[in-house]
Amino acid sequence: MKQRRRIYYTETQKALMWERWREGDSLQHIAQLFDRNHSSIQRILAETGGIQPPARHRSRLALTLAEREEVSRSIVAGHSDFPPSDGAEASGKPASLKPRYSPQCCNIVL
Question: Which of 13, 59, 76, 100 could cross-link 9 (Cys pair, CB 3.0–4.6 Å)?
Answer without folding.
Answer: 13
